[in-house]
Amino acid sequence: MANPQAPQDKHDDSDATSPERKEAPAPADTIPDGGLIAWLQVVGSFFLFFNSWGIVNTFGVFQTYYASKLLRDQTPSNISWIGSIQAFLLLIIGVATGPVYDAGYFRTLVLIGTFLTVFGMMMTSISNTYWQVILAQALCVGLGSGCLFIPSVAIVSTYFTTKKSFATGIAASGSGVIYPIIFHQLEPQIGFGWATRILAFIMMATLGIALCVMKVRIKPEQKRELLQLSAFKELPYTLFTLGEFLGFMGLYIPFFYIQSYAIEAPSTPIDENLAFYLLVILNAASIFGRVIPNFLADKTGPLNMLIPCAAISSLLAFCWIAIDRKAGLIVFCIFYGFFSGTFVSLPPTTVVSLSPSLGVVGTRMGMSFAFAGLGLLVGTPVAGAILGSGTNFVGVQAFCGAIVAVATVAVLVARFAKVGMNFQAKA
């Protein structure tokens, strides 16, 4: 880690050609761990997260709209590819944006990400065919979100020590609660086009706030590798990355399909308005699931907190099979949203804890999330293929529970590989 007095992110390109120097770690007591500037980074990161993962979490409302109106000639599996590609790009682009962030190009990444996400949503608003939506919402918004995501989680860790997980959890709580409500309320009144354009304007305004308040505190003084393959020689990191791949394969299935399930499957009919708010409840509960466990993780360690939360998420997915009443679905969404939220908020601090220095965090985080992206890419379309054109969701629910259970085992073994069988060790 570079000395705290190193030049900050005022001129992204200023050090691009400077000679490489040996990186010297900064003492821990120079990290602010609070104060106005540090918490402003959390605010900025919140808005970056709001417009990257928040947009991914919003896709459930688009899935339902496309299936019933704009793209009703497409299968659920085909439609889910839009959200899966978007989420995949958000994570896989981290392989490139991690080293770019490490090299000091934070502001450049956010500017590019802002343009692509806003432009992509604008183009989505005028799309009429499946492939137009793929190009605009899946590819353009996905690429833009990928430019925003790594900066949203990497910068906070350089401002905090004892409050690192808690601060990251607050930043990661910028989820898909607001956007689905806005779209759901506006679309019947002003149409799909203008409802989507209003989302784009909100994205532009909130990302502008992030650009104004965020500032890189330190940056490495030497160039970083695009990939650090030597990281996979470390068993804890490798097993954790495997757990992310498997976890993201299953965890987002309820976020994509809960509305369709509520409308089509239960023995007691549920009106479309309540079915829509199930997605909002999932996302709202995930806010608390990203903050409260992260607060506790500062004391217990991120792996120790992630393991039980992932196990409970798996159990809840299996319980989903037996739920077909309104009250049961609401309770399921509250608990599943809470416990599954940790799989988004805790991995960044987990990667930090599994890295030898802050200087390689961006690269390692990018690689780890790339595998998570692969899981997201295939998970929900596989669920759609299992569902087919029917209304029997048992196979989808069982697939979700089983794959998350295997992910839990992988993360558990990663924890043992790091600290052994010492159950009281912070990990």
Helical content (DSSP H or I, runs of 4+): over 70%
* Strand content range: under 5%
Low-confidence stretches: 1-29
Integer average pLDDT: 85
Major β-sheet profile: none
User: In CATH terms, what is the architecture?
Assistant: Up-down Bundle
What's the Cα radius of gyration? 21 Å
The CATH topology is given as Growth Hormone, Chain: A
Q: Which structural class do you get from the secondary structure elements?
A: mainly alpha
Helical run tally: 16
* Name of the CATH first level: Mainly Alpha
Membrane topology: Multi-pass membrane protein
GO cellular component, one term: membrane
Organism: Heterodermia speciosa
Subcellular location: Membrane
How would you describe the overall organization of this protein?
This protein is an all-alpha fold and about 425 residues long. It has a single domain (about 30-420), classed as MFS general substrate transporter like domains (Growth Hormone, Chain: A, Up-down Bundle), CATH 1.20.1250. The chain is built from 16 helices and no strands. The chain has helices at about 35-50, 55-70, 75-90, 95-100, 105-125, 130-155, 165-170, 180-215, 235-250, 255-265, 270-300, 300-320, 325-340, 340-355, 360-385, 395-420. The chain is globular, with a radius of gyration of 21 Å. Residues about 1-30 have low confidence and may be disordered.
